[in-house]
Amino acid sequence: MRKILVIVFLINISFAWWSSPQNLGITGADDVNPQSCRVQLMSNSSCLVWQTNLHGNWDIYSRFSEWGIWGDTMKITDDNENDMNPSVAYDYARNCYWCAW
User: Fold this and answer.
1) Strand 45-52, strand 96-100: pairing
2) Contacts 24+ apart (CB under 8 A), 9-17
3) What is the torsional sign of CA 32, 37, 38, 42?
């Protein structure tokens, strides 16, 4: 069983590739807990959310990608509290992304 899992893992790696690193966070702040979600049916878009302490508060920010081009950073919380552990998912029924924290 272990040999089969190793073979499946190696096959999956051989069909994947990683692009060069790209800084999508906030410069000068501690960015933590990134979460991403991708939808491919209607468009090739992705959403990335993370926490950052840009102004001394742990606010949640996001970026959206359409066909591999990342947009601007957007703050999605207006709270001065600790907004922790964001998670993002795509809602096919409503054609939108949801973020929970």
Assistant:
1) unpaired
2) none
3) negative
Give the C-alpha separation, 4 to 86, whole Å. 35
Q: Each residue of 30-65: pLDDT tens digit? A: 999 999 999 876 678 999 999 998 878 889 999 999
- List the chain domain ranges: 28-100
13 within 8 A of 5, measured Cβ to Cβ: no
Q: Which two tokens stand for residue 1?
A: 């069983």
Integer-rounded Cα radius of gyration of the chain: 17
Between 15 and 11, name the one with better pLDDT: 15
**How would you class 20 by CB atoms within 10 Å of its CB: exposed for 0-12, middle for 13-18, buried for 19 or more?**
exposed
Does the pTM exceed 0.85?
A: no
User: Are 72 and 24 spatial neighbours (Cβ–Cβ below 8 Å)?
Assistant: no
Q: Which two tokens stand for residue 82?
A: 């600790």
